[in-house]
Write a structure and sequence with these properties.
The protein is an alpha/beta fold and 344 residues long. Helix content is 55%, strand content 11%. It is elongated.
Length: 344
């Protein structure tokens, strides 16, 4: 049962089957999975005996000897008791490490769940004890490169498929916020029903992202040097700032042109070579970068990335008093007219 690096599904499976370890450590930057597992652990205790057998303790408000004392108690009118220690990241490492005494000889009728939401737990003795008598789950934050795969996986989990453009729209709008991704896809699953496909039209109707005026379409317009379409999208963003913050658009453009630069400098000029260099999983994900690389050479790409960095600084108030959408308009103009002049 002991595991130093269990997955989310491993821990959830143990809870669902009732085959639990005596001690769990849930830690890491991504809070969504930790919150989900805490709810699962709470469900181990029947509603009618929760007052006696479910303890939720906040680490900054108590001391670890008290936590150990509670864990040593026996459950009342139930097979087990569950003790959930929250906010473990908010106390000193040596304080949390005290629990290694308990983890070395845990009460088999108690499930202790130690949560360090937003940070990795420290304390060598505790971590070593968990290798023998417990389970450790590290909840990693979703990376930018993994967002598309996560959207497809969540959709599949909910019995849906997802159109590639819709996938990109969700990525650009939500980013790496896993809780929000689950929330929006849950909502779409409820509305569309199992077996349906998430389309751009479904997202426009139910999530509030325009299928024609979004960062996905802006990149397409810039890729094809369609200035009229690009500037129309910027104006739409200006008139709908709440759903189109410039920080997301600038980040999207930076990511796109960074990929173009990697594409230009990739030694292996095969499709698989480009995909490996860019960390892509599906061939269709390469298309935008291929189109951009055809229309923007290396020197132009470097000039554009420099302009994006400058725009990012200026939208944060560094070196400019222009409005953020005026700065975005200027960035799009500089991108479309880039000649490949690199300032040294």
């Amino acid at each position: 049962m002991a595991s130093a690096n269990a997955t989310f599904q491993d821990v959830r499976s143990q809870i669902l089957t009732g085959n639990t370890a005596p001690v769990y450590l849930l830690h890491g930057e991504e809070g969504y999975f930790i919150d989900e597992l805490v709810r699962d652990f709470e469900s181990l205790v029947p509603e009618d005996v929760r007052d006696f057998n479910l303890y939720t303790i906040y680490a900054p408000e108590t001391d670890m000897p008290t936590v150990e004392e509670i864990c040593r108690k026996f459950p009342m009118m139930a097979e087990r008791q569950v003790v959930i220690l929250k906010e473990g990241q908010a106390i000193r490492a040596d304080q949390l490490n005290y629990l290694h005494h308990y983890a070395e000889h845990p009460n088999p009728q108690t499930v202790l769940v130690i949560c360090c939401r937003g940070a990795q737990a420290k304390g060598k003795d505790l971590l070593d004890a968990l290798k023998k008598n417990g389970v450790t789950f590290l909840s990693k934050r979703l990376s930018d490169r993994d967002v598309l795969g996560a959207i497809a996986s969540i959709a599949k989990e909910k019995g849906l498929s997802v159109d590639p453009k819709a996938q990109m729209m969700l990525r650009d709008f939500i980013g790496t916020d896993l809780a929000k991704l689950y929330s929006e896809i849950d909502k779409l699953a409820l509305i569309l029903g199992k077996g349906a496909m998430i389309t751009p039209e479904a997202i426009e109707r139910n999530v509030g992202i325009s299928k024609d005026y979004n960062n996905f379409e802006l990149v397409d317009a810039i890729n094809s040097r369609n200035a009229l379409k690009a500037f129309r999208i910027v104006e739409y963003f200006r008139n709908n700032p709440k759903t189109n913050p410039t920080v997301v658009t600038v980040s999207t453009l930076f990511g796109h042109f960074s990929n173009i630069l990697i594409y230009h400098y990739t030694a292996d000029k095969t499709q698989s070579g480009y995909m490996n260099a860019l960390g892509l999983r599906q061939p269709w994900q390469l298309r935008k970068t291929e189109t951009g690389a055809r229309n923007y050479n290396v020197r132009q790409t470097i000039e554009i990335i420099s302009a994006i960095r400058q725009c990012d600084a200026r939208t944060k108030g560094i070196g400019s008093r222009m409005g953020e959408y005026d700065l975005l308009y200027d960035l799009v103009f500089r991108t479309l007219t880039a000649r490949g002049i690199i300032e040294v």
